[in-house]
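queue> holo job accepted (pyridoxal-5'-phosphate)
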Amino acid sequence: MTMTTTRETPLPLADPAVFQAIQNEQQRQTDGLELIASENYASAAVLQAAGTVFTNKYAEGYPGRRYYGGCEYADVVENLARDRACELFGADHANVQPHAGSQANMAAYMSILQPGDTFLAMDLAHGGHLTHGMRLNFSGKLYNAVHYGVRQDDHRIDFDQVAALAKEHRPKLIVAGASAYPREIDHPQFAQIAADVGAKLMVDMAHYAGLVAGGVHNNPVEVADFVTTTTHKTLRGPRSGMVLCKQELAKDVDKTVFPGLQGGPLMHIIAAKAICFHEALQPSFKDYAKQIIANAQTLAETLTAGGLTLSSGGTDNHLLLCDVTTLNGVTGKIAEAALDRAGLTVNKNMIPYDPRKPMDPSGIRLGTAALTTRGMKQDEMKRVGDWILTILKSPEDTSLAEKVKAEIANFAQDYPVPGV
Ligand SMILES: *Cc1c(COP(=O)(O)O)cnc(C)c1O
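queue> job finished
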């Protein structure tokens, strides 16, 4: 039977195939335990804003200076987002138009670098990001990226190496921030090194922006020329990005984002970002940020007691990098697949000085931001850690995985997912 649909037909009838996939994803997110360090659960209000008629609106330009008519309400939400972002992080200026974290980084780079210029950033293999100069990424193709890393003995950022590379290569820009570094980053130390060589400092706080917003991680806005971030990781907003900068760089950043890199901003997502910043300004967000770290530390203790080795020996933030090869015959790839079968979502990850290859590295990366949003605390982290250990000790046992998966689905029911 063929259905006639109109523009008013609701999704389940308009497109059953897509609807079913969305339903299944919702069920997956509800029944499983989300431990991917870059993920979180956005609030019902954020989800709602992201699904509104603002998706219909073209608003090229900036509030008060648009290239399209009918932007009065677009101006309202973009101004709210900008003002709240500045208030939240104590920034002079916010550009809330970058579509994602990668675009935010591109905007900061293009504001001051020319093709061929040198910048210094963290090595991908030591926890950096693709956009920090990886060979196949625009950042590695357009610029001369030089990389620092962590020390072999304690897996902490090697500031002696950062300073030495800065003196040797005289980069125009130094980038701090990482995707898989479990320790608080000493931004003032980066600022000192940048000042010593006359470089600008950009801090990419994509992973830990929520911890900065919650006051439990030092604020890079105080010392950096640019701070870039995603809004969907610990900050718990919609999937997107943002650039914060000093007033003297504001014009260059704005010009670089539009018309330099993007056309129309995603106004529905900017509306959702405004809500995200409002939520992060509430006192309860400070409790959330504290709980994320307490949870990560409890999970770290549980896993260490069970025989896993953690990069740097523990965590100061929301994430753990675990060497799973300390358990007999387990690798990152095996661990990721085995945990997935049991309803525990993680990602395989290189650990610093990893002797193995990226597609089957020695480690897995775990984060507590998402489970903390569901209301889990230290006691729950002990249970989660025990489940992880149970699975990793018998990664091939599929009936065990099924049993754990059922236990987890039952347990997870008590911790609702926002908007579901
Ligand atoms: C996630 C991340 C990004 C990029 O974010 P996307 O929104 O995926 O483009 C950039 N930098 C760091 C350090 C990240 O962790």
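queue> The chain has a mean pLDDT of 97.
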